[in-house]
C-alpha cells in the first residue's frame, strides 16, 4: 500500500529513479538538474534539501547507518555506524540491538 503525500515538486530537469522511499515527503526538496539513482531512501522527519546539480548514487550505505549533515559520502559505508565529514568517515559503531 502506498500513500501519496504532498511533496514540493522537484526542480527543472531533475530525475529521480523509482522507487523513492520517504518518511513524510513533506520535508524533502530537490533542486534543479538533480539525479537520484534507483531506490533512494530519505528519512525526512527534519528538512532535507538537495541543491541544484546534485547526483545521488554510486555508493552503498549500510542498514542502520547515520550520515551526518554535510557529510560527503565518497565510498561505501558499512551497517551500524555513524559517519561524518568531508569525505565521510566512520566515527562510531552503533549497537544494532539497542533501541
Count the beta strands.
Answer: 10
Strands across the major sheet, in which order?
A: 1-4-7
Work out the helicity level.
under 10%
Number of domains: 2
* Amino-to-carboxy terminus distance: 27 Å
- What is the element string, with H for helices and E for strands? EEEEEEEEEE
3D shape: globular
The secondary structure category is mainly beta
The biggest sheet, with number of strands, parallel, antiparallel or mixed sense and barrel status, is: 3 strands, parallel
Average pLDDT taken over every residue: 81
Number of helices: 0
Q: Please compute the radius of gyration using only Cα atoms.
A: 14 Å
Note the beta-strand portion.
25-35%
Uncertain runs: 1-5
Keywords: Transferase
Family: Belongs to the transferase hexapeptide repeat family.
Organism: Geodermatophilus telluris
Protein name: Bacterial transferase hexapeptide (Six repeats)
Walk me through the structure.
- This protein has 99 residues and is mostly beta strands.
- It folds into 2 domains: 1-57, no CATH class; 59-99, UDP N-Acetylglucosamine Acyltransferase, domain 1, CATH 2.160.10.
- Helices cover 0% and strands 27% of the residues.
- It has strands at 15-16, 21-22, 28-30, 35-36, 41-42, 48-50, 55-56, 66-67, 81-84, 89-93.
- The strands form 4 sheets. It has a 3-stranded parallel β-sheet with strand order 1-4-7, with no helix packed on it. It has a 3-stranded mixed β-sheet with strand order 8-9-10, with no helix packed on it.
- The two termini are 27 Å apart.
Amino acid at each position: 500500500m502506498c500513500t501519496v503525500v504532498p511533496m514540493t515538486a522537484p526542480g527543472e530537469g531533475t530525475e529521480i529513479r523509482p522507487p523513492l522511499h520517504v518518511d513524510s515527503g513533506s520535508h524533502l526538496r530537490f533542486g534543479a538538474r538533480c539525479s537520484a539513482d534507483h531506490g533512494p531512501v530519505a528519512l525526512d522527519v527534519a528538512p532535507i534539501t538537495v541543491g541544484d546539480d546534485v547526483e545521488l548514487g554510486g555508493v552503498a550505505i549500510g542498514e542502520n547507518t547515520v550520515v551526518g549533515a554535510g557529510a560527503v559520502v565518497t565510498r561505501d559505508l558499512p551497517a551500524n555506524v555513524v559517519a561524518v565529514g568531508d569525505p565521510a568517515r566512520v566515527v562510531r559503531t552503533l549497537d544494532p540491538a539497542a533501541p
